[in-house]
Design a protein that fits this description.
Blueprint lengths: L5 H14 L4 E4 L16 H6 L7 E5 L3 E5 L4 H7 L5 E4 L15
Parallel strand pairs: 3-4
Antiparallel strand pairs: 1-2, 2-3
Length: 104
């Protein structure tokens, strides 16, 4: 695993977002073939967040760092994510990744 802290990874990503005038970065679990189970070299979301579950999406904005996952992974995500990440439960009553405001 990486020796770079989650907080530092988020901070570095935000620098890149600001340099390129991008509001957010979406990091999916799938590889370029949309496989659910990916090889180690394609585990971008896992590297960025520390969450190793096979289903989930990470979103980093200027102000937030969130991981969206479903009920199969709530316990695992809760244990693996550092305090720098907010776990977003994929429940009907909760906001989806598409509904997140990037300017707040």
């Amino acid at each position: 695993m990486s020796k770079v802290s989650p907080k530092h990874k988020i901070a570095l990503l935000r620098v890149l977002l600001a340099e390129d005038l991008v509001d957010g970065f979406l990091c999916l679990s799938e590889d370029s073939h949309s496989s659910e189970y990916v090889s180690t070299c394609d585990e971008r979301r896992s590297y960025l967040t520390g969450f190793t579950g096979s289903a989930g999406v990470a979103l980093v904005t200027r102000y937030d760092a969130m991981v969206f996952t479903d009920s199969r992974y709530y316990l695992q995500a809760g244990n693996q994510l550092s305090q720098d990440w907010t776990m977003m439960k994929m429940e009907p009553k909760d906001p989806t990744v598409e509904e997140v405001r990037l300017d707040e």
